[in-house]
Write a structure and sequence with these properties.
The chain is of the alpha/beta class. The chain is 36% helix and 15% strand. It folds into 2 domains: 4-102 and 356-363, Enolase-like, N-terminal domain (Enolase-like, domain 1); 105-347, Enolase-like C-terminal domain (TIM Barrel, Alpha-Beta Barrel), CATH 3.20.20. It has 12 helices and 15 strands. Helix 10 (262-274) links the parallel strand 9 (252-253) and strand 10 (279-280). The radius of gyration is 20 Å and the shape is globular.
């Protein structure tokens, strides 16, 4: 039986942590363990996993996952689950390549032939958002997502919400749908005003209108608005999601495959959500491996609705995006709002390993990414 023979970790631009496994019989599997702003912590956890599972049978994915999760005493959390995600995705890639089938074939077979996607927009004024929407439309998208507010106080001027409404109207004017991601920046004293202002203009959904953990507030909001409520990028296991499902407080769950334990746990979250009639729209402002892994889950999930696909990652434009490390970027081509199902073995993508290795050397010479820190005019801390 083939075993894990080699375990490597790469840090690449713009902010991704990539895992490469190689089996004793020479099959390579790729995973992504990105946790934005915390790559060193995840790399440390990956070193621990490498020590534990090098020499372990490659095909025993569930045993490896359960051992990594349960035999540490301290479970879950963003660091462990991101490291475990990188390992898990690589194991699925390796196993599917062994059988020469796409991962979705091992997960029960496909439910669809193509995957609906939305792009990102990084402008924050209505005029610029309209321009960005037209660019995304020319790239084949029919829906986009933006974050329309900077930091907000617990109670801020109601005019601080006006920009979200105007950006939504601008995007709708060119015939596209817009989802609005608030990053938990809005607090309960203002969130009802926000939902009431947006509802007449029919956003696709609102994401993290309140911070994760505010289950009571989110449930109250759900009873006051017709807008679909989405969250999940800061939930790392099915246990984290459980209270949201049982409280009927959300409409769309957004687990991030690189934060939530990989394909194995993200698929369990998806199927758990289905029992509560909650839609699945995986979070993924990350790299090509994470995007491909999300698409494998989308192929087998009946409650899947739309997949995040972000490029570039920042308004100024990154030199690297989800196409950079692919040998054939056409596999991610968007047509009429959809990406075609991947049919190649494993994740369905072929990576430029030489470029990844070269980039890792360059990336480690620079300071690791750190997320912004925002403060209000009085010096108090605001959510980024």
């Amino acid at each position: 039986m083939a075993t894990i023979a080699k375990f490597e970790v790469f840090r690449v631009f713009p902010r991704w942590v990539i895992v490469r496994l190689e089996s004793s019989d020479g099959i390579v599997g790729w995973g992504e363990a990105t946790l934005e702003g915390h790559c060193e912590a995840v790399e440390g956890s990956l070193m621990d996993l490498a020590e534990c599972f090098t020499g372990h049978p490659c095909d025993d994915i569930e045993q490896i996952w359960q051992s990594a999760f349960r035999q540490r005493f301290y479970r879950s959390g963003p660091v462990l689950m991101s490291a475990l995600a990188g390992l898990d995705i690589a194991l699925w890639d390796m196993k599917a390549k062994r059988f020469r089938v796409p991962i979705w074939s091992l997960l029960g077979g496909k439910l669809r032939d193509k995957i609906k996607v939305y792009g990102g927009a990084y402008e924050i004024t209505p005029e610029k958002m309209k321009e960005a929407a037209l660019v995304r439309k020319s790239q084949g998208h029919t829906a986009i997502k933006m974050t329309p507010t900077d930091g907000l106080g617990w109670l801020d001027s109601p005019s601080a919400l006006d920009n979200a409404v105007e950006c939504l109207k601008a995007v709708k004017s060119v015939g596209m749908d817009l989802a609005l991601d608030f990053h938990g920046r809005v607090h309960k004293p203002m969130v009802r005003q926000l939902a009431a202002a947006l509802a007449p203009h029919h956003p696709l959904f609102i994401e993290e209108p309140l911070l994760p953990g505010q289950i009571e507030g989110i449930k109250q909001l759900a009873g006051q608005t017709s807008i679909p409520i989405a969250l999940g990028e800061r939930l790392f296991s099915r246990w984290d999601c459980k209270a949201y499902f049982e409280s009927a407080s959300i409409d769309i769950i957004q687990p991030d495959v690189s934060h939530a334990g990989g394909i194995s746990e993200t698929l369990r979250i998806a199927r758990m959500a289905e029992a509560y009639d909650i839609a699945l729209a995986p979070h993924c402002p990350l790299g090509p491996i994470a995007f491909a892994a999300c698409c494998q889950i989308a192929m087998v999930s009946s409650n899947f609705v739309i997949q995040e696909m972000q490029y570039p990652l920042h308004p100024g434009g990154d030199t690297c995006d989800i196409f950079t490390y692919l040998k054939d970027p056409e596999v991610f081509r968007v047509t009429d709002g959809y990406v075609q199902a991947f049919t190649a073995p494993g994740l369905g993508i072929e990576l430029n390993e030489e470029l990844i290795r070269q980039t890792d050397v360059k990336c480690r010479k620079e300071a690791p990414l750190r997320l912004p820190k925002w403060n209000a005019a009085d010096g108090s801390i605001q959510e980024w």
